[in-house]
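> forwarded from #structure-qc
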């Protein structure tokens, strides 16, 4: 497959995604210091006529970017000429039973679901099941274990939630003898919140079903109090779940009937593998286990063998397949032009992709600096990365997810919607700047474009990133900046692409213009970063002062500070660290004994 020289920059009408996300409303509002600083400096910039960064209007119908016939020297050969062929995923993982054919139904009614669930699905504007839902729901209702693989954005969340809620609704638990019967484990907090919100919408008309979220970064004590009541379904992240199992006396997994491992390949990363093993030990051996993933690895197969009983294999497509409705483009970065990446991304956002765009950047610092830069240039954006608290992450997702969740507003900018709503507390944004924290599982409505500042190192990670758009047969676009070191991944992208990959060339004078604007903004960006650092230091000092005042007050009154009377919490991470410390001390002790023995022998 080669690059298509007949390239035209048509802008497709992006269809709305039906499953709108509703981030939990119990989060804490974040400190918008950076937005305040950006707005302050931007007013100064706009009043300075020598710095033209307020607008970059492009005449209607005029796009200076051109198609390119430039190709990498090592052109990807036609698939038919290859001698070696990779095994299909279904050949790698041969279980005793597999779903090779399934009945594609036109309505959820044909899946024999309970009326309360059907009513909720109708309110969520979900009418027709996706292929993965048609294949998995009937099998899961037969109480069979499932090992399922389908591309990202195919509707896996409903594929495991609906059969579980169907069985829980038909056999509700007596409140006087409540036990937790279903558990969904997610690798990230954001994905856990998303699954929890979907489940809450589904059980809207099932008053006897109770659902609880147990994710890190959110209030520990309120979660613990809710878990003591033994809710029917718990959606959790691995670390926080183990901590609750260790510290909440009345909460256990002995009566678990349904266990879901979502994004199983991510759950088996080095940070989660031991925790997943610990959780499975806590669960009942008579459970039904549903394992879902967008990609399948050898580690996932090992987990399937250990945790599933006679599973049914449901592999609907290749693990590395991108969505059929995804249009892929690349911008080639020459070795001596690596410094142009920021200017190219800014040009793309300012000229063509101002709405419903996610930009993936390599580091947390890059996200924050890009946030400040784009804000000064007049674009509404927010950031999402690991340096933010959980409340800040949920706030960022809500601000980005809010825009375009209805047909009436999907084509309006965040500023226009904010003006119409007259509600400054929500502050919706058009652009999300994220690290790979946002690349897994999140179903954000109406994402039109994904931009990769740098290409991921693996095809698997690329699939997860671009899977934020073109979800559930909607149209989307992915634009990646490709350097000389990205040849291997780029060739793999071209092999797997459902359509020819197109090349986008940005005129050198356009890049130079935006590079000049960025250079002029550097001093202002430095001032904003310095102001943020001062604010952090001031808050840290205020926190220390508050603790000191509390201690003085307690000493005068003869009582102990609150921090001293709180009970000791047994954290899983601390236990793991203690084991390593004991092992290290034991090795040191043994080596000393051997050394002493050698010295005595020599004497």
């Amino acid at each position: 497959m080669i690059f298509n020289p007949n390239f035209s920059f048509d802008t497709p009408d992006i269809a709305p995604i039906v499953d709108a996300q509703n981030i939990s409303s119990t989060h804490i509002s974040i400190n918008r210091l950076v937005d305040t600083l950006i707005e302050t400096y931007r007013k100064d910039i706009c009043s300075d006529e020598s710095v033209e960064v307020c607008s970059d209007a492009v005449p209607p119908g005029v796009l200076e970017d051109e198609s390119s016939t430039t190709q990498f020297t090592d052109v990807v050969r036609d698939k038919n000429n290859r001698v070696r062929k990779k095994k299909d995923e279904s050949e790698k993982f041969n279980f005793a039973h597999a779903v090779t054919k399934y009945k594609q139904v036109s309505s959820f009614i044909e899946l024999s679901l309970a009326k309360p669930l059907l009513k909720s699905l109708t309110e969520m504007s979900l009418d027709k099941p996706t292929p993965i839902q048609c294949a998995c729901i009937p099998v899961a209702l037969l109480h069979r274990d499932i090992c399922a693989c389908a591309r990202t954005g195919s509707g896996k969340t409903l594929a495991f939630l609906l059969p579980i809620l169907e069985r829980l609704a038909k056999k509700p638990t007596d409140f006087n003898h409540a036990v937790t019967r279903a558990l969904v484990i997610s690798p990230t907090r954001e994905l856990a919140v998303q699954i929890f919100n979907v489940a809450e919408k589904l059980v809207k008309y099932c008053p006897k079903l109770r659902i609880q979220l147990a994710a890190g970064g959110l209030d520990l004590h309120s979660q613990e109090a809710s878990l003591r009541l033994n809710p029917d379904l718990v959606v959790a992240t691995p670390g926080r779940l183990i901590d609750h199992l260790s510290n909440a006396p009345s909460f256990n997994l002995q009566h678990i009937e349904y266990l879901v491992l979502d994004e199983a390949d991510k759950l088996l990363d080095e940070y989660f593998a031991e925790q997943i093993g610990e959780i499975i030990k806590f669960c009942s051996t008579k459970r039904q286990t549903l394992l879902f993933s967008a990609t399948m690895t050898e580690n996932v197969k090992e987990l399937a063998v250990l945790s599933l009983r006679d599973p049914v294999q449901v592999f609907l497509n290749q693990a590395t397949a991108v969505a059929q409705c995804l249009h892929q483009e690349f911008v080639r970065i020459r070795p001596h032009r690596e410094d142009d990446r920021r200017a190219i991304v800014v040009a793309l956002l300012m000229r063509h992709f101002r709405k419903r765009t996610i930009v993936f950047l390599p580091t947390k610092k890059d996200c924050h600096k890009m946030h400040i830069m784009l804000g000064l240039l007049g674009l509404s954006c927010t950031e999402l990365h690991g340096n933010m608290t959980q409340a800040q992450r949920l706030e960022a997702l809500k601000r980005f997810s809010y825009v375009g969740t209805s047909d009436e507003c999907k084509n309006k900018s965040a500023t226009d919607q904010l003006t119409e709503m007259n509600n400054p507390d929500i502050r919706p944004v058009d652009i999300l700047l994220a690290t790979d924290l946002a690349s897994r599982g999140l179903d954000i409505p109406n994402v039109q474009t994904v931009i990769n500042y740098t290409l991921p190192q693996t095809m698997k990670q690329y699939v997860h990133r671009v899977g934020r758009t073109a979800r559930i047969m909607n149209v989307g676009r992915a634009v990646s900046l490709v350097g000389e070191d990205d040849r291997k991944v780029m060739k793999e992208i071209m092999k797997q692409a459902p359509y020819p990959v197109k090349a986008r060339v940005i005129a050198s004078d356009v890049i130079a213009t935006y590079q000049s604007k960025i250079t002029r903004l550097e001093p202002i960006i430095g001032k904003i970063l310095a102001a943020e650092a001062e604010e952090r230091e001031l808050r840290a000092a205020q926190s220390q002062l508050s603790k000191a005042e509390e201690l003085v007050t307690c000493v005068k009154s003869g009582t102990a500070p609150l921090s001293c009377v709180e009970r000791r919490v047994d954290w899983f991470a601390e236990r793991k660290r203690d084991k390593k410390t004991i092992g290290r001390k034991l090795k040191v002790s043994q080596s000393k004994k051997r050394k002493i023995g050698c010295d005595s022998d020599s004497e």
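QC bot note: The mean pLDDT is 79. The CA atoms of residues 364 and 387 lie 7 Å apart.
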